[in-house]
Write a structure and sequence with these properties.
Length: about 240
């Protein structure tokens, strides 16, 4: 479902996966992430798999979901390994899985392998009643490859296509989000923009391009900017 062009801070918070995927993140960092997510009512926290169970405990009965990553950040694991990783994370409490597609297979034209790769995780997600998002790492793809990747996500039954891991050569761009949005239009998939979204203006640009979810570690700053601008408009 498309987001309205003019979002309140609360609506914006509900479009954000509050993200901390740095390899050096400590339990104390994760505790702070979850506290921020509860306070600001973000849609989810997105963390590495080893922290899923901790997040589930910290978030308790709050509305904040736990999202994690699979095959991250390279996407080079076999489909069965990604499916196991997803199933384990779901047992630990994840309700959303952001998997990295097999980029080498995609660029090499092995669509059958890419389809098996995505479907393996989609099946694990469906079995655990979780949502599957597919990271296609747009910075490494041509426009034709991006469109092909989106088509394979549709065919495999994914819930979202996602732009970036944030660990490659570039993050989300408005042009890529618009391209992805057109590629999945009318097919029931959401579009998640992630990587390099650091300001309120960045967030608005992605939403205007067609993003229905944002992944960012600058979530609190973005909301503070949104509230400050809203306050100025009411003066």
């Amino acid at each position: 479902m498309a987001l309205p062009m003019s979002l309140s801070a609360r609506q914006l918070a509900q479009a954000i996966d509050h993200t901390l995927l740095k390899p050096e993140a400590t339990p104390a960092d994760i505790e702070r992430l979850c506290a921020e997510a509860r306070r600001h009512r973000f849609w989810s926290v997105c963390v590495n798999p080893s922290y899923v169970a901790l997040c589930r405990r910290l978030l308790g009965r709050s509305s904040v979901r736990v999202c994690t990553v699979v095959g991250f950040p390279l996407g080079a694991l076999p489909p069965a390994a990604k499916a196991w990783e997803a199933a384990r994370a779901i047992r630990d409490g994840a309700r959303e899985i952001d998997m990295v597609v097999n980029l080498g297979a995609l660029k090499g034209g092995d669509e059958a392998l890419v389809l098996r790769d995505i479907r393996a995780v989609v099946r694990a997600c469906r079995a655990g009643r979780a949502l599957c998002k597919v990271i296609i790492e747009t910075a490494l793809l041509t426009d034709a490859e991006k469109i092909r990747a989106c088509g394979l996500c549709v065919k495999a039954g994914a819930g979202y296509v996602k732009s970036s891991t944030g660990f490659s050569t570039g993050g989300a761009t408005a042009a890529d989000i618009a391209l992805m949005s057109r590629a999945v239009a009318g097919r029931g998939l959401g579009v998640k923009a992630s990587g390099g979204i650091r300001t309120y203006d960045d967030a608005v640009a992605m939403i205007e391009a067609g993003a229905t979810r944002l992944g960012t570690s600058a979530s609190v700053r973005i909301l503070e900017e949104a509230r400050a601008r809203a306050a100025l408009r009411t003066r």
